[in-house]
Amino acid sequence: MRENSLGKKGKSYRDIFSKTPVALMAAAGIWLQSSSSYAVEEICGSCSYQVSVAGEFSHERERGVDRIEGMGENAQLFSEAIIGDSFAITVLGLPEGKYSVVIGMAETQVRAAGERVFTVTSGGKTLAENYDIFADVGSYKVSHIIATVDHSDDALRGPLKVEFVASKGNAKFNTFEVINDTGARVVFFGATGIADPFSAEATKVPEISEAAIWRNPDQPMEARIKDLIRRMSFAEKVAQLQDDAPAIARLGLPAYRYWNEALHGVANNGIATVFPEPVGMASTWNPELMLEEGRIIGIEGRAKHNDYTSKNNGNSTWWTGLTFWTPNINIFRDPRWGRGQETYGEDPFLTAQMSVEFIKGMQGDDPKYMLSMACAKHYAVHSGPEPDRHRFNAEPSERDLYEMYLPQFEAAVRDGKVAGVMSAYNAVDGVPVSASKFFLTDLLRDTWGFDGYVVSDCSGISDIWNRRAHAYVETAEEAAAIAVKAGCNLCCGGDYNALMKAAQTGLISVEEVDQALYRTLWTRFRMGMFDPVDMVPFNKYTIADNDTPEHSKVALEVARQSMVLLKNDGILPLQRSKYKTIAVIGPNAASKTMLEGNYHGSASKPISILDGIKQLAGPDIEIITAIGSPITTRRGGAGWSEQDNSTTRPIPELKDEAVAVAEKADLIIYVGGITALQEGEGFDRTEIELPAVQ
After folding, report:
1. Which residue in 85, 227, 243, 457 is the catalytic one?
2. For this structure, is 132 an active site residue?
């Protein structure tokens, strides 16, 4: 599944609402009677997991509740409803697994079929398409949408997110339930159980008589950014400090999703040019080639962004933004580390040289506008172990810190002028990096001269206080406040909602929030998102500039230069005249998903190793094949990673087949190894040898 962001089961906002008078809630605009909707977020204060509803909706009392049939013991929960054009329910911290989602609703307003029609999705899966409550069960009767979803760890693919979009009238729900694969109810709430976490004062819109200048390209950028900030309520400012920044319709500010990926090509957004993984890029030892690869990724990212925003009133959603959270410039010190494939290897100098050129290519060389934005991650001292990354405390020596872990980040800032830096999950010498003024301000900004934005890794802010992570402070509001004060400007996820209580209790000032927002909004101004279309040179790119033959040639050249020959006993290069039959054996021979790595796009014309051998062999050489064995007999560590090389055939049968095929051949090419199921984000390998079954 693809969802929003954030991880870890966190503290609920129960303590906020238990002290909030109903009159104050009403003043904040929570209990609405009209059907008009507005941009808002509400939180479930009694849920075991952090649950929020965000988007364009209103929170309404139902009419004639006593007439609704089928409520059972949940009658009270149907007394209110969430109704709106477009909104989403987000559940933070659910463990990886398969879940049933049950959405309850009753029609109390429309009187005919076709008046309320909406679609419910979760990631790439449609849970209900063009659903019409009245057409299904009529009015004043409980109806349910029931669907199964596969959820991966929050830190990998974001939290569980269920989205509602109306095509006629408004979307609606009264109750929401999540059941795990054992049949246990893990989330259950009704519209009655959520409330706006912001006070009336926080939602108050500033009264400003001067004309807005933030869209005027003739004005200085600093003045423009500050003009936009001063027009926001405190609640709107807090919402803009999260990676899924909502639109502010009254200001004409489009929605923007900061989280995007482009590790080795634009990821998760359909067809794109797919390059080798960064560990392969580093093996080219060719910085100039990295400059060109970065440029291509920037162009394709722009093309996709331009295409989406032109069709959606300037709004962007997941995987369509221009703030790419790449490259990963951590040091690959232990070959068992699951994310080593994402890095440029174990040498900080080589990592610096390659990544600086990659960053320059992605961001472009226009003096005014950036093509796209790179983000150096994970800063700092982050090289595994993956299972402990949310609570790991690194204790490097001073020499190790400055010679191994920091040089490539300094180079990214000083030489690459990188726009973004992502703070790591781990702590260093007892202080979580996202809460470290030393790393995020003293060193990064004051010493190296960084002038971009800092974003937390997803769930990194909750790790600051979570007792299962660092437990550095006791509460969510303390964690949010200390992170902003330290220099973490943008939060991946919803943890900065706690800034409201932080401000109320004096933990943080409005000025400190404004400074974080300035650095965050700077990204959108720097890429020309609020300037006339014809002023920004990169707005010329269209979807026709994506996945071009020229881009494919560069990807091929990177692949060729990345290859390393470890041993050759005189067999290579193969002499065509010597072979009549070649056996290609191994579980990865025909796999295309194995070649993708992680954080990848979709190649338009993927070629497996077996496909390539067949093409080169031509009609005069017979190619015979056998799997030989499964990849491994151990369960994989990433259930969300789909692979095309699995088999249920008995191992003895596979081995016998491979032997028979080998006996017929003049030459054997073995294609084994592992896949994304054996190493990746969130889990490491336990050994570096081939799986025993191979």
Report:
1. 457
2. no
